[in-house]
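Provenance and format

Records in this collection were gathered into a single text stream. Each protein contributes a sequence line and a token line. The two records reproduced below are adjacent in the stream.
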Amino acid sequence: MILRCARLGLALLAGLSLLFLTGCSGGTSAGTSPGTATGTATAAPSRTTAAAPPQSTGTPGAAPTRFSRLPTVQEGALPAEARRTLALIRAGGPFPYAKDGTVFSNFERVLPQHKRGYYHEYTVRTPGERDRGARRIVTGRDGDVYYTDDHYESFREVVADEAR
């Protein structure tokens, strides 16, 4: 419990520092742009904080791809097992685990806050694990997708690869 509080405090401090440093430069720090992976996760939104508005990729006519202020990961940079899980989600299954597709309650409050039932979770196989392992894909009703490889301690928002 103390370790979790310490991590939250550090994440909050990092988030505030990032907010201060990027507040005067239009929202992105030098060398980064929306849709690129960032270092550490920022603090979880509070219950009363609305989710960050979607941000555009900057490509004219492109649909918004950001639903949170979490670090991002390009879909193509995910482990192969996570990409397979995303393909199964898009195809509607079948899923290998009985708990796939169940409601994710976001008890950790790392993801943007929404009403119960907004998020659903899916297992990402971990080679060598006998059980479900720690990796998950969590999807939101509005099309948002998140990846965790540490059993909900942290998440990265999955950003679709740019069309080539």
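Adjacent record:
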Amino acid sequence: MINAVIIEDETLVAKGLVDLINKADATINIVKVLGSLKSSIAYFKSNPEPDLLFMDIQLSDGVSFELLKEVKINCPIIFTTAYNEYAIRAFKLNSIDYLLKPVDKEELKLAIDKFKQHRYLDNQLLNEQLKSLIKHISLPNETKAYKERFMVHSGKSVLIINHDKIAYFIKEVLIYLVTKDNQKFITDFQTMEEIEELVNPATFFRANRQVIFKSDVVESFKSDSYGKLIVKLIAPVNKTVDVSREKAQALKKWLQ
């Protein structure tokens, strides 16, 4: 049996993750669900370490990386996040997995399988990976140069679109760039994750698996009966975008 701890400050999200884990792998036993940075630090200072830790990044009382500075943790960590500003490439480079909210059951299964394959890695190596990860992610956004010009296809021509002209990117089999005057162009991107790594997270938001939109095209938003946010983009774009309940809080913070 594999003992695991979950750090997640949203009760419904934590419950959903427990259900997904139970369905994905019956050998994983959730011994504790922690809802804040403060309670997590207290727990790990007085309880044995689990075999595996599922850890949200942005908690109500701080960033969970602070836990790794306060307490020595040797167990593997699978990070979960609704925020796109945390250098996703760093997770991949350091062999520590991450799940983007809302958590996909197939991606969760792959993450657990990866954990099992590397379960017996030397703890010292894991510690070094964690240190490198924290250092990488702690770098201020100002040190990274974000992409400002994007090439798109218009018939047989290739156009250059400046970032301030962009309304949103959308995946509809191909990935399109849509401008603020509602022109739609094909890009050469293969995944939305590629775009996330290139654009400035202060001005672009990953709303769901299909859409990344820009902050200055948001006209308004409202909640539906399920806790999702319906975001309306300004004219002439006139598009509505669904933001999941799990990402609703992240969007509100981002817009502030």
